[in-house]
Design goal:
Order of helices and strands: EHEHHHHH
Helix content: 40-55%
Number of strands: 2
Shape: globular
CATH superfamily: P-loop containing nucleotide triphosphate hydrolases
Distance between the termini: 17 Å
Number of domains: 1
Length: 123
């Protein structure tokens, strides 16, 4: 899973990252990327929505995981040196991380024939 902020510079860096991933896959063919984790997403921002759409267009084989919204709560939990799940368990950010965890669990389940990106939609 590759975390990414929906920002033009992040997309530029991501293209270079995939060059590196390709080189690593030659040494470790079992390495795979499950998808992208959009972080610090301001859902009402046109730029963020445009960047997520561009990401989906440029990497059509890789799904977008449930996004993590931009929130001061995340920074506060980091300053407190605790997870957002412990710091503000009922916050939207904590709920988003729980959704991501469930998504990754479903993607790793060898008994589930339907990949999570086909089973549900993501915000």
């Amino acid at each position: 899973v590759i975390p990414i902020e929906p920002h033009p510079l992040s997309l530029m860096v991501l293209r270079r990252l995939f060059d590196t991933v390709g080189r690593i896959q030659r040494l470790n063919p079992s390495l795979r990327v499950l998808g992208f984790l959009p972080t610090k997403v301001h859902h009402s921002s046109r730029l963020a929505n445009d960047m997520l759409a561009t990401l989906a267009e440029e990497f059509p084989g890789l799904p977008l995981l449930p996004s993590i919204p931009l929130s001061v709560r995340g920074a506060e939990s980091t300053a407190e040196r605790t997870s957002i799940l412990a710091y503000m368990p009922r916050s939207t950010v904590a709920a988003a991380y729980r959704d991501v965890g469930a998504w990754i669990e479903a993607a790793a389940d060898p008994h589930d024939a339907t990949p999570p990106w086909e089973a549900r939609t993501h915000a």
